[in-house]
Design brief:
- The protein is built from twelve helices and 18 strands.
- Helix 5 runs parallel beside helix 7, helix 6 runs antiparallel to helix 7 and helix 11 crosses helix 12.
- The structure holds adenosine-5'-diphosphate (ADP) and magnesium ion.
């Protein structure tokens, strides 16, 4: 019998009606002679009573800043509630089901609270559920250390839980259920022309996720790729086939026109810094920034200065560092990074020229660019985000 890990995100478990749909999807898998291993996110998004952000806001406002260990303990509650609710609903529909914490499901991590890394998986509890025809419903986003401390896996961590369990159980497939019909050529919230892509390679999806496309977490793609388990992104609220992610999209190419660019991802809240710093300076600007754990992106180095971007949340920390060390700098905030992704663009000349042409036709100013074999990233002002993505969507006939 095929083992299928089914992961349901925050919107999928948000309301009674949506949870009924979740339960129907789980039962449908059982009826097709598959064995579902269910992973759930916390109920709803910010504002809903048990959503992760609501729990953090509650403790921050009523008690103050939380220590990392307690933060993880608190956050793990949201997914546990969700797992209990779904398992109970399944039982009341006549199916045997059991809610499990991440730790009980065998996800053993290191002790890096808020962003723990997998050490190994212990699959005996889930295996024994499967033997007894019990559907395991696992709280996503969490694990446990060898010492029994509860940890969380970083934002978007329920996707990672699903891939970790699939890897440990040697599952046949991972179904990530969300609120869109699959992976689209761009985020439908900013691009009205976005359309579903039937099939993509792990590498392309990893680049998308790593460039900000929220639809799946990059670490989840990495684990699935490592164990070569097909990953399918589907909608809880429809019966569409979704997007299948596999090693190569050769099979998909026969169904589709070969696109040079397959998708466009974006990340908001970027701040661009231009810092005066000579190449021969012994102050080691980039080292100092790294020591402060500020991750930088889009780095361009010139003889007299360096240009790079950071996340808005690190702006104060970076400014303090620059001022303390007497650096002269300017900054532009309110930026977005738009990344075009496509495995077929490697070695094809003129892609950058087409991006520049598309931007200039729509009067969009390009603040900075950088490229890799399969991506080109462009920094623009956030006001132009939607125009920029639509312009690129047209230019590359997505
Ligand atoms: P979940 O709670 O199910 O994990 P997320 O909000 O994390 O859902 O991810 C789904 C959202 O990702 C969609 O509603 C969509 O706005 C966003 N998204 C961003 N880029 C894409 C893309 N390329 N394709 C589909 N959805 C995308
Ligand atoms: Mg998500």
């Amino acid at each position: 019998m095929n083992k299928v890990v089914q992961k349901f995100g925050g919107t999928s478990v948000a309301t009674h009606e949506s949870r009924e749909r979740v339960v129907n999807k789980i039962i449908a898998a059982k009826n097709q002679d598959e064995f579902p291993i269910v992973v759930v996110s916390a109920i709803g998004r910010q504002g809903s009573p048990y959503a992760t952000d609501t729990l953090i806001d509650f403790v921050n406002t009523s008690a103050g800043i939380i220590a990392d260990r307690e933060y993880d303990l608190l956050l793990s509650c949201g997914e546990i509630i969700s797992a209990v609710v779904i398992a109970t609903q399944l039982c009341n529909r006549g199916y045997k089901a059991k809610a499990l914490t991440g730790g009980q499901a065998g996800i053993i991590t290191d002790g890096r609270h808020r962003n723990a890394d997998l050490l190994y998986t212990k699959t005996d509890v889930i295996e024994s559920c499967l033997e007894q025809n019990i559907i395991p419903v696992v709280a996503g986003f969490q694990g446990v250390t060898v010492e029994g401390e509860i940890t969380t896996l970083g934002r978007g961590g329920s996707d990672t839980s699903a891939s970790i369990l699939a890897m440990g159980l040697k599952a046949d497939r991972i179904d990530i259920y969300t609120d869109v019909d699959g992976i689209m050529t761009a985020d439908p919230r900013v691009c009205d022309k976005a359309r579903i892509i039937p099939s993509l390679s792990y590498n392309e999806v990893f680049q998308m996720a790593d460039s900000g496309a929220k639809v799946i977490h990059p670490r989840a793609v990495e684990y699935a790729m490592r164990s070569n388990i097909p990953l399918v992104i589907k909608n809880t609220f429809s019966d569409e086939e979704g997007t299948t992610i596999v090693q190569t999209t050769k099979d998909a190419a026969s169904k589709e026109i070969e696109h040079l660019i397959t998708s466009i991802a974006h990340r908001n809240d970027r701040v661009q810094f231009t810092v005066q710093d000579t190449v021969i300076s012994d102050k080691n600007l980039l080292d100092q920034v790294a020591k402060e754990n500020i991750s930088i992106d889009l780095i361009n180095i010139f003889p007299q200065y360096k240009v790079f971007t950071i996340d808005e949340s690190h702006k104060l920390k970076l400014e303090t560092l620059l001022q303390k060390n007497d650096y002269k700098y300017t900054l532009t905030d309110g930026c977005s990074k738009v990344t075009v992704i496509g495995e077929r663009m490697t070695g094809v000349p003129g892609v950058m020229a087409r991006i520049l042409k598309a931007f200039s036709k729509s009067h969009i100013e390009m603040l900075q660019t950088s490229d890799s074999l399969t991506t080109i990233a462009c920094l623009i002002k956030k006001e132009s985000l939607s125009d920029a993505i639509n312009a690129l969507h047209d230019e590359f006939s997505l």
